[in-house]
């Protein structure tokens, strides 16, 4: 594993002298550490071999990223790895996503192991996907497992390119890859505490305030200790406390998730968060529903706008039939949110207007070309 600047410089020189695309992968420590930082970066390129780089010891890989900026990167499920790679200075300008290619080509299973076995006939070693990659030193079997993730990635890319070309979908795939490579970093999520698992049980604003206070306290502790928030306090425990609104530490300790293993000091800090929420004025409490731009949830359409509900039903059926015909998942044919928005506030009932609306919602040209005709029909004649 590359752990110093001198060895990293040798890797950069070797990969600069290589040829063809570069296979790239990253390992995170999800479930163990705070955030989604990379704890291992794997690379492979023809003429350069494979390299495993420790981004803890070498936190700035921008020189490597710059050297590879004009090279096509081959990744599997690129959107999962690009954020942590971007943090250490590695951002591609061109890429090939083998998972997305598999989806577009209609493969029923698109995990890396399934794709390598189904397309290339090799079986990858399994067993270390969920380990704590922040462990140092990393055991030899883990490193071997990680190296295998890029061993055949370029071969898989080449085979999938041929299959996409055979199906007439290669240009579609390239448009998708370009969209991923050119997408800006995602905006920080507003009110991330609202994504606490089990939130559907929490109805009252005071209870929402407890969820928010406990979530924020947990997040601060997890960040400071560099551990996964779930290891500090479970989502289930947060919701339990919100529903119960305990008045003191004794009442809190009787709840699931705050049992006898939790020390008095920990219990006091959680109770303090509950007390802060209990002391908030009505104006300081969060609103029940997060304000979301765009149409309401589809389940409410029948009551709010029956005509829109009919349009959505027809559109979904049409998109489903087209996706089946094209042998790909519906969500890869067109984003469900784009379909909902077009159906909720339909443009003029002609193909050009529908195409413009889809493009405005981020659909790629190939998606517009395929979907606009069937959506136009669904909007103009929802009853069929």
UniProtKB/TrEMBL annotation:
Residues 204-284 form the HRDC domain. CDD domains: RNaseD_exo. It comes from the Bacteria. GO terms for biological process: nucleobase-containing compound metabolic process. Keywords: Exonuclease, Hydrolase, Nuclease. This is 3'-5' exonuclease. InterPro entries: 3'-5'_exonuclease_dom, Exo_C, HRDC-like_sf, HRDC_dom, HRDC_dom_sf, RNase_D-like, RNaseH-like_sf, RNaseH_sf. GO terms for molecular function: 3'-5' exonuclease activity; nucleic acid binding; nucleotide binding. Residues 284-293 have a biased composition (Low complexity). Residues 282-303 are annotated as: Disordered.
């Amino acid at each position: 594993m590359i752990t110093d600047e001198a060895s990293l410089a040798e890797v950069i020189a070797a990969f600069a002298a290589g040829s063809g695309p570069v296979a790239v992968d990253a390992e995170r420590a999800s479930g163990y550490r705070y955030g989604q930082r990379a704890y291992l970066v794997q690379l492979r390129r023809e003429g350069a071999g494979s390299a495993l780089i420790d981004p803890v010891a070498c936190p700035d890989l921008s020189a490597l990223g710059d050297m590879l900026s004009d090279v096509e990167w081959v990744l599997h499920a690129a959107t999962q790895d690009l954020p942590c790679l971007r943090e250490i200075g590695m951002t591609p300008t061109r890429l090939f996503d083998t998972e997305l290619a598999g989806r577009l080509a209609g493969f029923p299973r698109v995990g890396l192991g399934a794709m390598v076995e189904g397309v290339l006939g090799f079986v990858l070693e399994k067993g270390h996907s969920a380990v704590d990659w922040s462990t140092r030193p990393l055991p030899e079997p883990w490193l071997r497992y990680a190296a295998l993730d890029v061993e055949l990635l370029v071969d898989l890319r080449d085979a999938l390119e041929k299959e996409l070309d055979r199906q007439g979908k290669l240009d579609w795939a390239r448009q998708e890859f370009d969209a991923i490579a050119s997408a800006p970093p995602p905006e920080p999520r507003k009110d991330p505490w609202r994504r606490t698992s089990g939130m559907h049980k929490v109805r009252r604003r005071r209870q929402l305030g407890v969820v928010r206070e406990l979530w924020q306290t947990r997040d601060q502790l997890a960040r400071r200790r560099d551990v996964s928030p779930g290891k500090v306090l479970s989502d289930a425990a947060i919701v339990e406390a919100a529903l119960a609104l305990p008045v003191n530490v004794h009442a809190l300790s009787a709840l699931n998730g705050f049992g006898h293993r939790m020390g008095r000091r920990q219990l006091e800090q959680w109770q303090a968060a509950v007390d802060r929420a209990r002391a908030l004025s009505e104006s300081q409490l969060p609103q029940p529903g997060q304000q979301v731009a765009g149409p309401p949830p589809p389940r409410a359409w029948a009551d709010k706008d029956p005509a829109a509900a009919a349009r959505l039903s027809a559109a979904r059926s049409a998109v489903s039939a087209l996706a089946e015909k094209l042998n790909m998942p519906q969500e890869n044919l067109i984003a469900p949110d784009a379909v909902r928005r077009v159906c909720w506030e339909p443009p003029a009932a002609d193909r050009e207007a529908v195409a413009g609306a889809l493009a405005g919602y981020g659909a790629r040209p190939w998606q517009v070309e395929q979907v606009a005709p069937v959506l136009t029909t669904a909007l103009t004649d929802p009853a069929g």
